[in-house]
Amino acid sequence: MKHGFIDQYSDLDSFIHRLDPRTKLIAALAFILAVVSTPPGSWQAFACYLVLLASLLLLSRLPILYVLRRSLVIIPFVVLIALFIPFFKEGEVAGSYNIWLWEVSVTHSGLLILWNVVIKAWLSVLFMILLTATTPLTNLLKGMEQLGLHRVLLMILSFMYRYIFVLVDEAMRMQRARDSRNFGGKRFQQIKTIGNMVGTLFIRSYERGERVYVAMLARGFEGQARTLHRLNFGRGDVLFGIAFLILLASINLVTWLGET
């Protein structure tokens, strides 16, 4: 079975795709740090970040609906965490509501914090989608390794990328086998069947991991993944990195001058 939910658009040909993974990693880190350090009330700065990000998305030729659909997945989790802040943050009351026996109040400062959390998380996720969608994961991991990230963590991510598709295939085969046996019955029986499937999948995954580890040791594995593709840091990476960092610094400088 073919699964393309990770590297679906990483083989496109665009300026962003051709950039070195290390350039994109440093740009992503700089962008997220700039967004996180921006004051909550700096609407113009967030608008500039969005325009900059939209320009990069256009250069990458990624489908806009694909990017937006993937970015909206994180919003419910962020809202779930930050939703109650406006009700418990002290400050000027923006509105009061009666919920059954309780009267709750929403404050302006709480709403500002809610907006701050949501917009920063969304912009950061958008840039991470741009990074992962324009870079094959093997090259991304190679770039992380050359930037000095921990080798054990990178090895775990590499194995996850290699075998997540195998686990998906295994789960789909188990699901088809379950459906072919007329899966139904009472709710408790269904839950029991699903629990047995999860347990079986875990045991099979554990046993496969042991077999793969023994096979790698037999082939002389020494803890370092080797690839045939070599990263190339060229003039385009230098020009892009300098221009991108200058734009971020300009946005932050204008924001800081506006605050003062």
Shape: globular
Class from helix and strand fractions: mainly alpha
Helical fraction equals: 55-70%
How large is the share of residues in beta strands? 5-15%
* Number of helices, counting only DSSP H or I runs of 4 residues or more: 11
Q: What is the gyration radius calculated from CA atoms?
A: 24 Å
Quickly count the domains.
1
Order of helices and strands: HHHHHHEEHHHHH
Mean pLDDT: 80
N→C terminal distance:
58 Å
Strand order of the largest sheet: 1-2
Question: What is the tally of beta strands?
Answer: 2
Low-pLDDT ranges: none
Largest sheet: 2 strands, antiparallel
Model description:
With 260 residues, the chain is mostly helical. It has one domain. 70% of the residues lie in helices and 5% in strands. The chain has 11 helices and 2 strands, in the order H-H-H-H-H-H-E-E-H-H-H-H-H. The chain has a two-stranded antiparallel sheet. Helix 2 packs antiparallel against helix 7, helix 5 runs antiparallel to helix 7 and helix 8 runs antiparallel to helix 9. The mean pLDDT is 80.
